[in-house]
Amino acid sequence: MGRPRKFDETSALTAVMNTFWQRGYEATTTRDLAESTGMGLSSLSNAFGDKRQLYLRALRRYYETNTAVQVELLGRPGPVKDRLRNLMTQAIDLDLADPPSLGCLVINASIEMANTDAEVAQEVRRHFTTVERAVHAAVAHGQRTGEITRDRTATALTHHVLTSYYGLRVLARVQPDRTALMDVVDTMVAKL
User: Fold this and answer.
1) Are the C-beta atoms of 59 and 124 separated by less than 8 Å?
2) Phi, psi of 96 (to 5 degrees)
3) Which of 16, 43, 169, 184 has its CA 20 to 30 A from that of 96?
4) Beta-carbon neighbour count of residue 50 at 10 Å?
5) Phi-psi bin for 50: left (phi > 0), alpha (psi -120 to 50), beta?
């Protein structure tokens, strides 16, 4: 019988996720991952597999935490425009936090790895699809209640919201001007 594990898997995966988030896939070494978890290299490998498997697990951990928060925020009761504004404002607040945010791990993964690794692309699509469905449900509800225009389909408006949202996440990394970022939010909401 093997020795029992002496680590908390959730805490270890959160540390792995944060390390990849801070450094990116290519710049992260297995030694970085071992140090962040407090595990030895062989223990880390035995528990989770190689660096790529750890990266996939980190993306799944992000889904369980950050993506779930986005979906929960969009599903709350209240005016749809307020929920969409809150989603974007929360992202701006995170991205402009001190110390500066690292952006969105999934956007980072889509830029760094999704075009060269099919499994990473699949995880990225899962995140984006989940958020898209939540936005679509909110927009469609807003159209049914008359809060949101019916001049465009719910799908078209969802694409507009998502383009604004993901664009904000990227823009905040190079232009940390809250006023400019909120202009994007205000314009997007006004178009609904």
Assistant:
1) yes
2) -105, 5
3) 16
4) 10
5) beta
Tokens representing 52 are 């790529």
Rounded to the nearest 10°, the torsion over CA 127, 132, 133, 135 is 130
In the numeric block, the tokens 């959160």 are attached to: 14
Q: CA 13, CA 57: separation in Å to the nearest integer?
A: 7
Contact (Cβ atoms closer than 8 angstroms) between residue 187 and residue 81: no
Token duo for residue 133: 């469905």
Q: Check if the beta carbon of residue 114 is closer than 8 Å to that of residue 124.
A: yes
Rounded Cα gap, residues 139 and 131, in angstroms: 12
Using one digit for the tens of pLDDT, what is the confidence trace for 25-71? 999 999 999 999 999 999 999 999 999 999 999 999 999 999 999 99
- The DSSP annotation for 49-92 comes to -SHHHHHHHHHHHHIIIIIHHHHHHHHSSS-HHHHHHHHHHHHH
**How do residues 94-113 score in pLDDT, each as one tens digit?**
889 867 778 899 999 999 99
> Sign of dihedral through CA atoms 159, 84, 15, 46?
negative
